[in-house]
Amino acid sequence: MVKQWLKSNKLTLTFILLGAIIFLFIIVPLFRMIFASDPGILRETLFDPEVTKAILLTLWAALIATGIGFVLGVPLAYLLARYEFRGKRIVEGLIDVPIVVPHTAAGIALLFVFGRNFFMGSIFGSVGIQFVDSMAGIVVAMLFVSVPFLIDSAKDGFKKVDIRLEKVARTLGASSWQTFFRVSFPLAWRSILSGNIMMWARGISEFGAVIILAYHPMIAPTLIYERFETYGLTYSRPVAVLLILISLIIFVVLRTLVQRGKQR
């Protein structure tokens, strides 16, 4: 009986084996680091003012970047989902470029735009906003590398909305704004929220672009790097574990909320 089942499910068993290998490849390093940490040192690190400040700054900066990405990215996602135009594939490809570009290179590219002596840096500098070694620089770096996740997810969500529903709303007298906010957006909100979560999570983990544009004030990934370079693994690991645990808890809670929304 078992032999016959194994024979008829060779594909499933093979895929389970291959899937288990890559799953373990992902989780083993993370859990190995978490469970190898001393709880006492973790508690002491959590109350280290420098660590607390860096973690809060990381979460806050990623949240601001996500908010900006939401305001600017969702309209672009809607346009890409609803309209065909010459060069659309090029535009979609360029939007995804920050995902594949080495992020230290992205940081240098941003420096050539938002640096004190460059175009946008000079304009914002005239009103007192500096991007080099500032909170604004951290937000810009996080926004650049993570907004493609939000745009792509929102675009997929809008594509799933039946365009006939929008046309019916228009024939019933709704304006284009009313149609968007009462039909398109509510039906695509789960994909948009998933994109926001992915963008926020990606922003938290950003390091390469941030250190080029704004090494100070230090976010958590920068602090981990500095402690590793200065003091070694013993002092950098507790900060890394705390950041992983906090990100994991928030990420699981948000994804659970999205999943519950789908089941309703």
Describe the structure.
The protein is mainly α and 264 residues long. Helix content is 83%, strand content 0%. The chain is built from 14 helices and no strands. The longest helix has 34 residues, at 49-82. The two termini are 40 Å apart.
**How would you describe the shape?**
globular
Q: Rounded to an integer, what's the Rg over CA atoms?
A: 22 Å
Helix content percent band: over 70%
Main sheet, how many strands, which sense, barrel? none
Mean pLDDT: 89
Q: Quick one: how many beta strands?
A: 0
Coarse structural class: mainly alpha
Straight-line N-to-C gap: 40 Å
Q: Spans of 5+ residues with little confidence (pLDDT < 50)?
A: none
Q: How would you spell out the order of helices and strands? A: HHHHHHHHHHHHHH
Strand content: under 5%
Q: Helix count?
A: 14
